[in-house]
User: Which sequence fits this backbone?
């Protein structure tokens, strides 16, 4: 499982429009091969900043599948004009951690 992380800086005053258009764009990303789920969270301290987390089955499902799809053009048209600066997108993989003592059999 791959976790995509994008910190989105939305132009101040455009937050409501961004959230509306993101709801529409959610249908695009959720229809992609390898998509698992996503969340969008708004920052409490900086209300024009959002955190987008998307779970993908593989890195290629995002970088080649989604970004290489015709639907990615619709995603860009809906959302990219809201960002200043344009976000950096990073991908993460979970680090296995030992279970808590109470969770062990």
Assistant:
């Amino acid at each position: 499982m791959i976790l995509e992380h994008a910190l989105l800086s939305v132009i101040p005053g455009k937050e409501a429009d961004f959230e509306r258009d993101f709801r529409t764009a959610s249908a695009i990303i959720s229809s992609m091969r390898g998509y698992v789920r996503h969340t969008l969270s708004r920052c409490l301290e900086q209300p024009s900043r959002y955190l987008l987390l998307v779970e993908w089955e593989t890195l290629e499902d995002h970088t080649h599948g989604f970004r290489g799809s015709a639907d990615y053009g619709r995603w860009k048209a809906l959302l990219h004009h809201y960002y200043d600066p344009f976000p950096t997108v990073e991908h993460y993989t979970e680090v296995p951690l030992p279970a808590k003592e109470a969770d062990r059999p």
Summary: The chain has a mean pLDDT of 95.
